[in-house]
Structures
1.
Amino acid sequence: DTEVTQTPKHLVMGMTNKKSLKCEQHMGHRAMYWYKQKAKKPPELMFVYSYEKLSINESVPSRFSPECPNSSLLNLHLHALQPEDSALYLCASSQDRGSSTDTQYFGPGTRLTVL
Amino acid sequence: QKEVEQNSGPLSVPEGAIASLNCTYSDRGSQSFFWYRQYSGKSPELIMSIYSNGDKEDGRFTAQLNKASQYVSLLIRDSQPSDSATYLCAVLTGGGNKLTFGTGTQLKVEL
């Protein structure tokens, strides 16, 4: 089973709203990722959590705040977003065995629209 | 120089033909290579992974890796209309978790 789930599937929010995206996996993976994908572009890495610790932040604006409550859950808290933040937000997970063959599996994504 | 390069396409092939998708990468130390398929509006789906020089086959898909030339390819045999999608080449870099994507090649399989 290589299932990563994300909620909600769609989210529309105003620039003053606070909302959260959620991601869950039950594969025993120890690395979880947030990506942002704009139309006709490849996914762009935002954050990586390894063993529940933030290991990579790709200079993401502070209006995006990640949280990893446990090894199965990953949240992305959103506040004061801009219309240009509208995109498909993808969560992924991988085993993170420290090897060079770690494979990332993606969730279905959350389509975010900022008005 | 982009780290992972792909021809954006669209690549059009007739149904039943072989589709050949190509990718080059710049980090000579890269060891893991992946092909993801992405349908419009959906998330990337892993098709193939390859780590050693040579060919790796899985059903209608064959991945080819040539580390000396820094080149990885994906062949799709007996192409079907359902194969029409964007194919993303991805390379694991930075010694661990960072997956770098190419811009993707749009494949269209025509009836």
Note: The radius of gyration of chain B is 13 Å.
2.
Amino acid sequence: GIQVEQSPPDLILQEGANSTLRCNFSDSVNNLQWFHQNPWGQLINLFYIPSGTKQNGRLSATTVATERYSLLYISSSQTTDSGVYFCAVGVWADKLIFGTGTRLQVFP
Amino acid sequence: DTEVTQTPKHLVMGMTNKKSLKCEQHMGHRAMYWYKQKAKKPPELMFVYSYEKLSINESVPSRFSPECPNSSLLNLHLHALQPEDSALYLCASSQGGGGTTDTQYFGPGTRLTVL
């Protein structure tokens, strides 16, 4: 089956720093989403981005489908950005496969 | 409104108990999902309902029994669970059924402990 690897696995930042999270996948996909899971377990959808670039405030994402990777950029990080970031890819029929996750901690 | 609600928030049950988890959405979405998430691991798909019919069962043990009474509701019935079934159970929904091009919206989850 398709493999979805994220890097880095852990990231520690000071408030105000910028970061780039990466998601690599092993096969062609027609769905890619980025999620943020807060410390209480709630998964929030950040981007639906099977290809191209999108921006939402301090967050932006780029997916290069032909090279099988996606990047999530976080600028001017805040403590509320802490949590786990997952990318998830879809190959067929409503099934999303989640990546390994990046755990982000932002300190004041 | 992009809200998916789940009840209860927390559940503790013994191995001989029968309990149910409930999920509700009022966004008119036609696909609903159950995921299981163990600590420090990504969510894993359990079941998908598309247009109120079970479309995907990821080889889940029969002690987990899903039910979709109508297009807004999804239940997960639990019976004779094992301690290793303790996890966060997440419900999600998406606009259409039968496709892979939809954003999934997640509920807050039910944290289940099996004693």
Note: Chain B has a mean pLDDT of 92.
3.
Amino acid sequence: QQQVKQSPQSLIVQKGGISIINCAYENTAFDYFPWYQQFPGKGPALLIAIRPDVSEKKEGRFTISFNKSAKQFSLHIMDSQPGDSATYFCAATRGAGSYQLTFGKGTKLSVIP
Amino acid sequence: NAGVTQTPKFQVLKTGQSMTLQCAQDMNHNSMYWYRQDPGMGLRLIYYSASEGTTDKGEVPNGYNVSRLNKREFSLRLESAAPSQTSVYFCASIWKSSYNEQFFGPGTRLTVL
């Protein structure tokens, strides 16, 4: 049973455009939702994260939108750049007392000039 | 501060051979993890160690064993490698709970012929 569903699997965006990646979760006990960014040949690294007590979190060009009632959250990359080309993973955890992250299957983003 | 280190970076095995993947972290983290990454499958947890002296199965533990040698080191052993274990393996660590950033190593690319 996949607890975090991520879409799309791949995404091609023009430079300067907006990249949007969506995730949906099933477990209502999840209370922390990080996004990880992975460049080819490297390990994933934390990009941005959100708790469900806020509906949006912004860090530079990256924004997480969170909809608790729909059990969905999304990553928006504004003014997408070729350097943003990477694989993005959403994840979820119930945090306290848990030591595991549940990852989505990833989205490969290509930003073309 | 090297973060999370993994050895080797690349390995080719024949079916039935055994090997141990090594992982070490110098961040004084409590919990350590082993994941495998396959195209279209995202990051799947093999085993984790919430603290020194404990290990638990993740989503895909069959065919693997682990040892938490001390607080710094967490190794993954393949006793009899199979082609289905061809993958990229990532070690990760985290301080205290999964509310904190999970730090990943650079990965080991394993091919089983």
Note: The interface with chain B takes residues 6, 9, 32, 34, 36, 41-46, 89, 93-101, 103-106 of chain A (CB under 8 Å).
4.
Amino acid sequence: GAVVSQHPSWVICKSGTSVKIECRSLDFQATTMFWYRQFPKQSLMLMATSNEGSKATYEQGVEKDKFLINHASLTLSTLTVTSAHPEDSSFYICSASSGLVNEQFFGPGTRLTVL
Amino acid sequence: AQTVTQSQPEMSVQEAETVTLSCTYDTSESDYYLFWYKQPPSRQMILVIRQEAYKQQNATENRFSVNFQKAAKSFSLKISDSQLGDAAMYFCAYRSRNLGGSEKLVFGKGTKLTVNP
């Protein structure tokens, strides 16, 4: 099956710093990647959708200047949390779609803790 | 906008028994996909089963089956012969299938399933 990886799996950073999370499709070309945020015991909240080579589409209420998304290649998308604050602490999950099958493949997630 | 509702925040089942998780959705679209995802404590999202709305036949995957009632906009998941490894959060999700429609998934709030030995 299709595999999506995320790096790092967990990260701790100081308030005010920026953190980059990578999402890679390992064995297929991902035309579309999605970034989700999940708070404890809650559902996944879609933050943005990114298509390779174009600007990401952000969901309402998500600050595009704070959560920078880059989908520069068909196998890599990055999420950068800029000037992170403790309220940005959360579990971030990416998923990827090739457009050929009607399924999104999920990464294992990244736990971000901002001190 | 589409919405997905899971009315059971928590459910429990005895090992080897059968449990049904409920999901209803609201949409004005005629063609779409419905999914059940499992999220174990590792938090890796795992696809359990998928249903295309145009198919009348209910999808099945081994011990997992769905009861898809399109008119009622209901999509329940039945887990037969429950196993300890089935313990997880279960999310129901909707995706548009219309041409030009978004690929994004709309998730319900989830149901936490506990399997008792």
Note: The mean pLDDT of chain B is 94.
